[in-house]
Amino acid sequence: MKKINIEFREDCDQQDINVIITSAKMDDEVRELMMRISDPFDGRLMVFDDKGTAIILPVDKIISISSDNRKLKVIADNGTYELRSSLQDIEQKLRSPSFFKISRYEIINLSKVKKFDFSISGSLRIEMENGVETWASRRNISEIKKRLMRKDKDQ
Questions:
Q1: Which of 106, 119, 139, 143 is surrounded by the most beta carbons within 10 Å?
Q2: What is the pLDDT along the chain (155 residues), one digit of tens a residue?
Q3: Is 152 helix (H, G, I), strand (E, B) or coil?
Q4: What global pTM score does this model have?
């Protein structure tokens, strides 16, 4: 992890808050920092348990989000929840490099992946840390491979 230096400059003529990030290159760590600074959800989503109680869930606890009969099912480290939004809206809000849409119906947290199995011809089986298996659609496999290659280079 890179060291982050923060500096404050007072400017009486300034109405808004301007944040400038300077780094040797734009990588996943810089993107993550930018997302966290600009994220109005502050890295959290409001989800609902099986009794309909609203819960604030940190996005880093999310394993996957999938569409299930027009409802969004959120699988997290500590249970399963419902999300009252569309998958497209959530995809826009989860601009973290950790999240990736693997099919029309599912977004996964790449940091919660245990294993990628590319051995099946033309398919990609993904095993999550919690033991759940899911499959990426064929059209997304090449983008997933590119993303994994970029992540290896950034580390």
A1: 106
A2: 788 888 888 999 988 888 888 999 998 888 878 877 776 556 788 899 999 999 989 999 999 999 988 889 999 999 999 998 889 888 888 867 789 999 999 999 999 999 999 877 778 999 999 999 999 988 888 888 888 777 665 55
A3: helix
A4: 0.68
Which residue, chain included where needed, has tokens 């994220």?
Answer: 39
**Token pair recorded at residue 57:** 């869930």
Which H or E run includes 117? strand 113-117
CATH 2.30.110.10 for domain 28-154: no
How far is C-alpha 98 from the chain's CA centre? 4
What distance in Å separates the CA atoms of residue 146 and residue 152, rounded to the nearest whole number?
10
SS3 125: strand
* Neighbour tally for 4: CB within 10 Å: 9
